[in-house]
Amino acid sequence: MQEYSSQAAYDRGEAVCVIGAGASGLIAVKNLRENGFEVDCYERDTVLGGLWNPQNQHSPLYPNTHLVTSRSQTEIPDFPMPDDWPDYPSATQMLEYLTSYAKHFGLSEHVWYGSEISHLEPVEGSRFEVVVKPAAGAAARRLRYGAVIIATGHHWAPNLPSYPGLDDFRGTVLHSSQLKDASRLRGKHVLVIGGGNSGVDIACEAAVNAASCVHSVRRGTWHLPKYLGGEPADYALARLSSRPKLLRRFLTDRTLKGPKRLAERMGVEAPGHGPGDEEPVRNGRYLEHVGDGSIKRRGEVARFDGYDVAFADGTEIRPDLVVLATGYQPKIACVAPELLGGTRDAPAPRLFARMFSPKAQTLAVAGLVEPGVGVLPIVHWQTHAIARWLQIRKSDPERAESFKLQVNAESGHNAVEHVDPRRRLVVDAEEYLASLGRIIDTLEQEPAK
After folding, report:
1. Under 8 Å between Cβ of 53 and 47
2. Which of 307, 329, 369, 386 has its CA 20 to 30 A from that of 380?
């Protein structure tokens, strides 16, 4: 902040700063406005939609992206998707949906496009000072806000693995976020590394566009078909949510026994954990491509050697193109990790109820979860809870602090649940939504007199 110390910060009073105008940011703006807050939303790109907008230069969309969660499990509770849309909308339709959402609720008038928050820090009175870096080299501005909600998601900082010899590999190496066009696959011998949804989707694209495709997967993955019993699979499984937890898990495992058996017959082993402990892979084409040989599965990569890649089992291949579908790191660059419960060495946030900063009363994060179903309903209720808590904090600070301590003690979602860093953001969607419901009920109760 020293380089801006000569500039007086413009005070926005009790207005709330929202960072990001993707889906989570737009939902945050809408719910804050409905709860009476002034809001300034800052978006570093010149368009709304976040990762769903291909005009966003930072978008990680790859070719032919579609939702892996169904329409009914993805739509925002107070803004349904059109009934005539497919069960699994495309990225283009998702952008259309978010654009319609912003227009319907008049959100764009609260968004500053081409404006990046380069730094934020707490100041006196539980407020925040932010540094806004506009596009085109304009002078940075400093502003003060009553609260900040970070809604940037976690698909912006690629997780780049380290392999012996990778830096000297003679072929081309891309992270999945750099693969914008299927034409880059055509005629190439492609190695895709990573067994999540991105890796599976890109392997399927390579199966029909590349000269050959090898898919390197370190461990087993749950492969969930998009349909079960004629219904979207996530909807079919969601109908089990009213059952007791142990019964729900039993019924889920029994429901998935057939798909699991089919995957294992294709040589795609299931992992050692249950289907609810990690986001499953959803791509109906993958097992077909494995079955017809257009995708060849391999285990973990051991090393790169010139033009060649060696696997842990001793086999080698010579790919032209390596795609690292190895996910993203949950980094939030504009804020010190300590403010979000992390450290310099382990910056991943550790948040009360997966949204509240443990260090700053007026700092929250929206959408930093992996629920295995559509995240937008969760963000809707998260930001509703955040807005209600900020209201109570103004009207009854003592009650607000007491509530925050209660959330930390009782929610069950106050910190990282999985030691495995690949699963640190995973939540059980039904349990977490129930937790959010209890939080909102508590916040909307009249204080005792």
Report:
1. yes
2. 329
**51 contacts 61 by C-beta, under 8 angstroms:** yes
Distances (CA, A) of 310 to 43, 265, 300, 369, 418: 42, 25, 9, 34, 30
Rg (CA), the chain: 23
Rounded to whole angstroms, the maximal C-alpha distance in the chain is 74
**Which among 176, 272, 177, 274 is positioned nearest to 224, based on CA atoms?**
274
What CATH architecture applies to the domain 166-324?
3-Layer(bba) Sandwich (3.50)
What pTM does this model have? 0.88
Q: Would you list the DSSP string of 231-290?
A: EEHHHHHHTTTTS-HHHHHHHHHHHTHHHHHHHHHTT----SS-GGGSPPB--TTHHHHH
Q: How far, CA to CA in Å, does 394 sit from each of 126, 378, 387?
A: 11, 25, 11
* Strand arrangement, sheet containing 141-145: 10-11, 141-145, 127-134, 115-123
Provide CATH code, domain 2-157+329-444. Answer: 3.50.50.60
Q: Determine the pLDDT at residue 414.
A: 44
Among the listed ranges 84-93, 150-159, 377-386, which one has the minimum average pLDDT value? 150-159
Quote the CA–CA distance of 256 and 421 in Å, as a whole number. 25
Q: At what angle do helices 257-265 and 245-255 cross, to 10 degrees?
A: 40
Distances (CA, A) of 25 to 91, 287, 396: 18, 36, 26
pLDDT digits over 210-252, tens only?
A: 999 999 998 877 777 888 888 888 888 777 766 766 666 666 6
Q: What span, in angstroms and rounded, lies between the C-alpha atoms of 148 and 150?
A: 6
Mean pLDDT of the chain: 86
Neighbours of 170 (CB within 10 A): 11
Distance CA 41, CA 20 (A): 7
CATH fold match for the domains 2-157+329-444 and 166-324:
yes
Kindly list the domain boundaries of the chain, sorted by start residue. Answer: 2-157+329-444, 166-324
pLDDT value for 422 = 55
